Amino acid sequence: MGKGLFKIYVGNLDYKVTEFSVRRLFEPFGELEDVAMATDKETGKPRGFAIVMMRDHGEGHSAIEGVKGRRLMGRPLVVNEAVQKKGGKNGPKIGPPSTDSSSSESHEGAFSAQTPSSTSPSSGVGLTRTPDSRASHRGSGQPSSRNPRRTAGRNPRRST
């Protein structure tokens, strides 16, 4: 048995699913400590996922295997061990395991060091902007690399 609670992410829930129905789904696999249904802070509406917490890690793993592939209110459930997401302005969050490894990379280096021989003569500095730089298109009338929807001028989706 591991330390702490074993947390299970249950996703793709219909917005009408209740905590009671999620409990009924997981109770056959062991004792549940708690079920947390995620809701939007502003509207109070469900966000479509829940976190099921169990004390026994072995029961938690068997619950994942037992519930995986089931449907609830006509929707196939996504069931995984919950992992902590990094960052966020309100601290770490619990969510599904990330399948995209590029999202965990740090983008702190908006500048990269170069050797003086590769420096452009006009800059005179050994640092240049990388293509990832946030300010690379500002003021140039080009769409920002941060927000592809933002254009100089009119809305591209609106017909003329």
**Low-confidence runs (pLDDT<50, min 5 residues)?**
100-130, 132-138
The DSSP helix count reads 2
Strand content: 25-35%
> How is the quaternary structure best described?
single chain
> In angstroms, what is the radius of gyration?
23 Å
The helix/strand order is EHEEHEEEEEEE
**CATH superfamily descriptor of the domain at 6-98:** RRM (RNA recognition motif) domain
Number of strands: 10
CATH-level-2 architecture of the domain at 6-98: 2-Layer Sandwich
Ends distance: 64 Å
Would you tell me which CATH topology of the domain at 6-98 applies?
Alpha-Beta Plaits
Strand order of the largest sheet: 2-3-1-6
Structural class from helices and strands? alpha+beta
| CATH class descriptor of the domain at 6-98 | Alpha Beta
Q: Overall 3D geometry?
A: elongated
How would a crystallographer describe the biggest sheet? 4 strands, antiparallel
Q: What is the mean predicted local confidence, pLDDT?
A: 73
The share of residues in helices is: 10-25%
Describe the structure.
The protein is an alpha+beta fold and 160 residues long. It has a domain at 6-98: RRM (RNA recognition motif) domain (Alpha-Beta Plaits, 2-Layer Sandwich), CATH 3.30.70. It has helices at 19-26, 57-67, and strands at 6-11, 32-39, 46-54, 71-72, 75-76, 78-81, 83-85, 93-95, 111-113, 127-129. The strands form four sheets. It has a four-stranded antiparallel beta sheet with strand order 2-3-1-6, covered by helices on one side. Strands 4-5 form a two-stranded antiparallel sheet. Strand 4 (71-72) and strand 5 form a beta hairpin.
